[in-house]
Amino acid sequence: SAVISQKPSRDICQRGTSLTIQCQVDSQVTMMFWYRQQPGQSLTLIATANQGSEATYESGFVIDKFPISRPNLTFSTLTVSNMSPEDSSIYLCSARTRVGNTEAFFGQGTRLTVV
Amino acid sequence: GENVEQHPSTLSVQEGDSAVIKCTYSDSASNYFPWYKQELGKGPQLIIDIRSNVGEKKDQRIAVTLNKTAKHFSLHITETQPEDSAVYFCAAAKAAGNKLTFGGGTRVLVKP
């Protein structure tokens, strides 16, 4: 398994501002993902973070709103831009550790509240 | 794309009883089915998974069964304990090792 650390664990932000969430994995991983989990709901995939290239976004999510970086095999960031109260949610980083291994592990999440 | 349905949404059981959660999926190409447990304020934790070449897998008090023909899979927890109280999610993915599609979640409450 892999240990995934996210920072910050929670934040309260003003609408119109942006927040960057960091995800650090303790070992090299093949794939990294960002999910959103709205209160009491399931997990929705935002995008796959690709090392050294643009992220692959799911339907309904765009790069201008959720820019993602992945400069190396162990680190990724997700920015929530121009926030509104509807962006209040838990954002989760996930990673898959080995090629051909579909086991995915999650960080503890970042609880974001936009006021 | 894949669609995963999960039932029930809430489940209350007496300590020591069994709990069963069921999921159905839509994409016959899916062949990896993990189950996650999420406790309050934490990220999802992988508890067991099953691949399509296996019909059943067991790990102590938890087991998962898979029926590929019917496209459904289930989580069984026996001898439930209060620490089993959490939200459980099923998910499905294809062999290419790409994204997981999650079910809606089941909130399990084990009453002492």
Helices, strands, pairings?
The complex is a heterodimer of chains A (115) and B (112).
Chain A: E1 4-7, E2 10-13, E3 19-25, E4 31-37, E5 43-49, E6 56-57, E7 68-72, E8 75-80, E9 89-96, E10 104-106, E11 110-114
Parallel strand pairs in A: 2-11
Antiparallel strand pairs in A: 1-3, 3-8, 4-5, 4-9, 5-6, 7-8, 9-10, 9-11
Chain B: E1 4-7, E2 10-14, E3 19-25, E4 30-38, E5 45-51, E6 56-59, E7 62-67, E8 72-77, E9 86-94, E10 101-102, E11 106-111
Parallel strand pairs in B: 2-11
Antiparallel strand pairs in B: 1-3, 3-8, 4-5, 4-9, 6-7, 7-8, 9-10, 9-11
Can you describe this structure?
The complex is a heterodimer of chains A (115) and B (112). Chain A has 115 residues and is mainly beta. Chain A has no helices and 11 strands. In chain A, the strands form 2 sheets. In chain A, strands 2, 4, 5, 6, 9, 10 and 11 form a 7-stranded mixed β-sheet that branches. Chain A has a 4-stranded antiparallel β-sheet with strand order 1-3-8-7, with no helix packed on it. The model of chain A has no long low-confidence stretch (mean pLDDT 92). The model of chain B has no long low-confidence stretch (mean pLDDT 93). With 112 residues, chain B is an all-beta fold. Chain B is built from no helices and 11 strands. In chain B, strands 2, 4, 5, 9, 10 and 11 form a 6-stranded mixed β-sheet that branches. In chain B, strands 1-3-8-7-6 form a 5-stranded antiparallel β-sheet, with no helix packed on it. Chains A and B meet through strand 5, strand 9 and strand 10 of A and strand 4, strand 5 and strand 10 of B.
